[in-house]
Amino acid sequence: MFNNAVISFLQLWLATLAFAAPIADDISATSAKPWHYGTGGGIIGFIVLVLDILVWIEVLQSNRPVSHKILWCLVVFLFPIVGMLVYYLFSNRQAHMRSGGYEPVP
């Protein structure tokens, strides 16, 4: 079970990197503006990728049901910027955070 989850995660990660790879053409290859969000993404694209990975980690570590985890991961994967914003605004993160320690014994 764990191996299948790891393999699936690595395949999705590889697909994300493949889609994030720059598609060089004459205009974007000669452009000196690294702050654009075009085909290559630049610095802003890298920041969005890092924030999306942080959202994925937070979702997968939460105590949500598996179906909700899959749904949130798909939303963030398919709509990187909008999905990340929707997650941070509407996901009720505090209610689904794992407790950091053991529960006290009565």
From TrEMBL:
Cardiolipin synthase N-terminal domain: residues covered: 50-91
Cell inner membrane listed as a keyword: no
Any one Gene Ontology cellular component term annotated for this protein: plasma membrane
Keywords: Cell membrane, Membrane, Signal, Transmembrane, Transmembrane helix
Location of the protein in the cell: Cell membrane
Regions that span the bilayer: 36-57, 69-90
Signal peptide from the UniProt entry: 1-20
Highest taxon, organism lineage: Eukaryota
Keyword Transmembrane helix: yes
Membrane topology: Multi-pass membrane protein
Name of protein: Cardiolipin synthase N-terminal domain-containing protein
Organism whose genome encodes this protein: Fusarium pseudograminearum (strain CS3096)
Source taxonomy: Eukaryota, Fungi, Dikarya, Ascomycota, Pezizomycotina
